[in-house]
Amino acid sequence: MPLEFSAQSKQQVARLLSRYPTKQAALLPVLHLAQEEFGHLPDEAIELVSRTLDVSPAHIFGVITFYTMFHREKPGRNELMVCTNISCMLRGGYDILKHIENRLGIKAGQTTSDGAFSIVEEECLAACANAPMMICGEKYFLDLTPAKVDAALDDLRRRWKETQQGTAADARTLIGMGPGGKV
Amino acid sequence: MGTWQDAMGVKIVTKGFGVPGSHKLSVYKERGGFQAFPKALTWQPAALTDEVKKSNLRGRGGAGFPTGMKWSFIPKDAKLTYLVVNADESEPGTCKDRELLAYDPHLLIEGMLIASYALGCKHAYIYIRGEMMREARIVQEAIDEAYAAGWLGKAHPAAGGGGSFKLDVTLHRGAGAYICGEETGLLNSLEGKRGWPRLKPPFPAIKGLFGAPTVVNNVETIMNIPEIITRGGEWFAGLGMGKSGGTRIVCVSGHVAKPGVFELPMGIPFRDIIYDVCGGIPNGRVLKGVIPGGSSMPPLDASEIDVPCEFDALMNDPRIKDVEVKPGVPFDLGGGRRLKTMAGSGGIVVFDDQTDIVALCARIMAFYAHESCGQCTPCREGSGWLARLCTRLARGEGEAGDVELLANIANGIGGNTICALGDAAAWPMLGFLTKFRADFEARVKAAGATAAHKSLPKALEGAA
Ligand SMILES: Cc1cc2nc3c(=O)[nH]c(=O)nc-3n(C[C@H](O)[C@H](O)[C@H](O)COP(=O)(O)O)c2cc1C
Ligand code: SF4
Ligand code: FES
To answer: What ligand is nearest to the CA atom of residue B85?
Structure first.
């Protein structure tokens, strides 16, 4: 079955299109939107975006593979983006990465079997003065130590369980929509 | 003109840091915000560009290009122009724009209003790095507030003399690609394409976003504009040093006691930044070297830190050694100009005497190899070779001739590519080889198991 955007996302698409002189320019924001809605970007999502923006699937495929944040496969619910670039490396960033890998029993680039976490070894995330560090969604974890990592993982897992049981709102938000575009 | 000490404590773009609710419009107005823009509207647009020229404001995104001059390249008769704010901050060691966006998004919006009026622009875009989700939310909320208050989307009543000028601002999120920080890669990305840099000319000022004349400016650059209009270009120029006006935001990371993001006088020496502002080198160690402006800039060694942190000084100060291709042969930037280093993005990375220099350099090369967009053979192949060879050396498995090979490869990239990412890999490679050659040569001789070999970051092993 071909995928469709939700009614709310359709409104967002319309709003997005009003912000650019060409339909194609809305491609990155619409891909973000599709990924928010479907969790990743399978072929059906590419076809949907192609229909929505009159851009060829081949072009969209080329764009998706160029950018690291678009996923063809479903990532873990909590994507831990762990920086190992120089400022973090100089202050133990690789030890932090190793600690996270050990705690979760997976390597960078992998997802835990319950789908709760994936680890991404990241390039500089623009918080070098608080190295070592990682991001998860909108949350920053700064000046990391192994103890801080443990606390962060426990907290993220607890929230993940709550969202799974439907007792907490999903913290994902849509941004970059122009005025009134917040959800 | 006084000395840099006179400007100690002057805050232009970090005034909001630490102020509760500083990102809110109400707090911004209490702090005196949205007064420069109405004032600017009483001027002719061309007079604003002249004032910015007078201020000696130079681009804070990396190249230090004079902002007023960049604005003046926009053709006078252009019907449609764009302003694009570069908020893609991803040069390793740089973390100022993210904090500026989080603390003071309305200062950016006010700067964009003034710049857009000066440039005849009706719709401006902020291209924000995709990973900065928190900052994107904060900036979007600020944009929404500015629309609701009538600063955006219509001619604001308080704007008085400006007549019909109105501006739309759209926040556009990237999706993870360092190369989209390069201004023409950014424009392609904004148009819904892969972020491949474009051949120049034509320059964006002639043919930029959607084919129209476009100015791309860094976040910090634009945030300086309101104060320049409020206090005058001359005041701003007087704060600075030589041809560089204003203050400078530096992001100090690595081996210092107190890392952080600081607004400091233009021209403050690196020694003062490291030892006074940041509390020196911790753990009883001593300084080995400093990357002065993001990982693409050649490092300074410990004997070179008395130079001022300022654009021209870092390019010309005789106390800084020339970057060499081989010992005694300086690297030629073209026309006989020699490379020392540059102020770059303001990302100052400090490293102590226990640092594994070769591993550090290998990590830098791995970054540029990963981020090369692949359009140009010298950059695509060369950056990969630098990363692999450097990693091999870092593991203590270097072969005779590796050090010369590294220098030759780097020399073959510089100046032979579409964009400056090729240089961004080649320059630090040659710089590290010039300043710390012995560290590299020791790895050749130490082929086999060494302590350094065992301490090498695991993730680098895949690069070789
Ligand atoms: C590979 C590469 C990456 C860059 N990344 C950034 C960046 O993240 N942010 C930025 O402001 N400028 C970056 N620049 C510089 C931009 O191309 C451009 O010169 C700058 O945004 C102009 O603004 P300014 O004149 O205000 O400095 C980069 C340049 C290159 C070659
Ligand atoms: S220099 Fe490198 S990053 Fe720049 S256009 Fe060429 S291949 Fe791409
Ligand atoms: S190097 Fe890790 S955040 Fe910049």
So the answer is: 1
CB of A128 closer than 6 A to ligand 3?
yes
CA dist B291 and B7 (Å) reads 24
Q: Is B92 in the pocket of ligand 3 (CB under 6 A)?
A: yes
pLDDT in tens, B147-202: 999 999 998 877 665 578 999 999 999 999 999 999 999 999 999 999 999 999 99
* Confidence band of A95 (pLDDT split at 50, 70, 90): very high
Selecting from A53, A85, A108 the residue whose C-beta is nearest the C-beta of B367 gives: A85
Q: Confidence band (pLDDT; 50, 70, 90) for A174?
A: very low
- Residue A29, min C-alpha distance to chain B (Å): 7
Whole-angstrom Cα Rg for chain A: 18
Q: Which of B380, B381, B413 to mutate to test the pocket of ligand 2 (most atoms within 8 A of CB)?
A: B380
Nearest CA among A156, A167, A183 for reference residue A76: A156
Beta carbon of B49 within 6 Å of any ligand 1 atom: no
In the numeric block, which tokens belong to residue A123?
Answer: 């390039």
B192·A63 Cβ contact <8 A:
yes
A10: amino acid identity, one letter: K
Does the beta carbon of B300 lie inside 6 Å of ligand 2? no
- From B132, which residue of chain A is nearest by alpha-carbon distance? A138
Report CA B442 to chain centroid distance, whole Å.
33
A105 CB-contact burial (10 Å; exposed 0-12 / middle 13-18 / buried 19+): exposed
Q: Where does the pLDDT of residue B1 fall: very low under 50, low under 70, confident under 90, or very high at 90 and above?
A: low
The amino acid occupying position A45 is: A
Task: Report the alpha-carbon distance of residue B125 to residue B81 in Å, rounded.
Answer: 12
**E-strand spans in B188-278?**
214-218, 247-254, 260-265
CA of B373 to the centre of ligand 2 (A): 5
Is some CB atom of chain B closer than 8 A to the CB atom of A66?
yes
| Token code pair at residue B96 | 């100022």
| Nearest of B18, B56, B17, B16 to residue B266 by alpha carbon | B56
Contact of B323 with B434, CB cutoff 8 Å: yes
DSSP B159: G
**B70 Cβ contact list (under 8 Å, min separation 6):** B59, B205, B215, B217
- Mean pLDDT of the region B130-155: 95
Between A and B, how many residue pairs show a Cβ–Cβ distance under 8 A? 186
Q: Classify the phi-psi angles of B246: left when phi > 0, otherwise alpha if psi is within -120 to 50, otherwise beta.
A: left
The helix or strand, by DSSP H or E, that contains position A65, with its residue range, turns out to be helix A57-66
- The predicted structure's pLDDT at residue B162: 52
User: Tokens 């507030």 — which residue?
Assistant: B145
Residue A126 near residue B347, CB atoms below 8 Å: no
- State pTM to two decimals: 0.94
**Could you tell me which residues come within 8 angstroms of residue B445 by beta carbon, excluding any fewer than 6 positions away?**
none
The per-residue DSSP string of B89-132 comes to --STT--HHHHHHHH-HHHHHHHHHHHHHHHT-SEEEEEE-TT-
Residue labelled with tokens 């319950």: A114
B274 contacts chain A (CB < 8 A)? no
Strands ordered across the beta sheet of B214-218: B168-173, B123-128, B82-87, B214-218
pLDDT at res. B446? 57
